[in-house]
Amino acid sequence: MRRSTIEWVDGAVEIIDQTALPVRTVVRRLSTVDELVAAIQTLAVRGAPALGVAGAFGVALAARQYRGDALTEAVLRLRTARPTAVNLARGVARAADRLADGPEAVLQEALAVRDEEIASSAAMAARGADLVTSLCGPSPRLLTHCNTGGLAAVVGGTALGVVAELHRRGALGGVVASETRPLLQGARLTAWELDQLGIAYQVAVDSAGPFLMAQGMVDAVILGADRICANGDVVNKVGTYAHALGAQRAGIPFLVVAPESTVDTETPSGADVKIEDRDAEEVLSFNGQRTAPAGAAAVNPAFDITPHDLVTAIVTDRRTISRQS
Ligand code: MRU
């Protein structure tokens, strides 16, 4: 089976289409910037590190497809395809910096972005597993939110990479995947990845998280980030903040695992981040079936902001940043 979520193959980008999982594993070939932007916006490719690689590969496509103003405009469309994960703008900027050197130089930079994300995943898995064991002992029961595995990166992942490493070490007591309404990255994608890894898991509705923590059924929360601000505020999938409040109340560690490419020291705090608002229909319907009454309105922020004082530690590929107590 194909192992990487996103790859450059013979002049095009190939992705595992995350909208089709877990029912079907579909590899889609994207040959144009328009196709890639649509894949990003529909979450066929998603997750902060994967978006960085997608953005960089997108510039490699653009360099082959366009010249002059059309090229500038294509790069802008890639950079702004989704606003919240800093990795996307970063991956685009890194590849775009090589445009003057020609398409091959752009592609080499994009491949370097991919390789760095693969290396970061391995480093985070080891560092994060050591930290979880030191904080929670030999058999922790973890709760994770959204999808932070290989699907969200290239291979490996961030928080789910740590879960997988703990499993490999025989040092995992259990894992709860919160379903992650409305697009079910937890119930569809994390559950699928845990299946592939042979790790037993339970899916819970998002709102059960704080209750499970209060009942003593979870020893730590571990999840990823789309942007970590200069003051340590964590911007991540909506629902993260509620889990952080639950963890604080239950007195258990709240751990964030993200590569350095997600750390944004130029953004002072969460208040300075553009939170993506997505289509109301995602909330008002389920599986293509309208669930809310005709005429219902919805608010659909795709992310939320967890203030830094709720975060026990942030694990990156290079360091562990612990909350000052
Ligand atoms: O809207 P998504 O699915 O792209 O959101 C993804 C998340 O919020 C992840 O938790 C985050 O990108 C970390 S992925 C390693």
Count of individual helical segments: 10
Rg, Cα atoms, Å: 19 Å
What's the architecture of the largest domain, going by CATH? 3-Layer(aba) Sandwich
Unreliable spans are none
Arrangement of strands in the largest sheet: 6-5-4-7-10-15-16
**Percent in strands:** 15-25%
* Helix/strand/pairing category: alpha/beta
The tally of domains stands at: 2
The CATH topology label of the largest domain is Rossmann fold
Mean pLDDT: 97
C-alpha end-to-end distance: 46 Å
- Small-molecule components bound: 5-S-methyl-1-O-phosphono-5-thio-D-ribulose
- The helix-strand sequence is EEEHHHHHEHEHEHEEEHEEHEEEEE
The total of beta strands comes to 16
Explain this structure.
This protein has 325 residues and is α/β, with parallel strands linked by helices. It folds into 2 domains: 6-117, Four Helix Bundle (Hemerythrin (Met), subunit A) (Up-down Bundle); 125-322, Translation initiation factor eif-2b, domain 2 (Rossmann fold). It has helices at residues 33-41, 48-65, 68-79, 86-96, 103-136, 159-168, 185-197, 209-214, 240-250, 281-284, and strands at residues 6-9, 12-16, 27-30, 141-145, 174-178, 202-204, 220-223, 227-229, 234-237, 254-257, 263-264, 285-286, 289-290, 303-306, 313-315, 320-322. The strands form 4 sheets. The chain has a 7-stranded mixed β-sheet. Strands 11-8-9-14 form a 4-stranded mixed β-sheet, with helices on one face. Strand 8 (227-229) and strand 9 form a beta hairpin. The relative contact order is 0.12. The model has no long low-confidence stretch (mean pLDDT 97). The structure holds 5-S-methyl-1-O-phosphono-5-thio-D-ribulose.
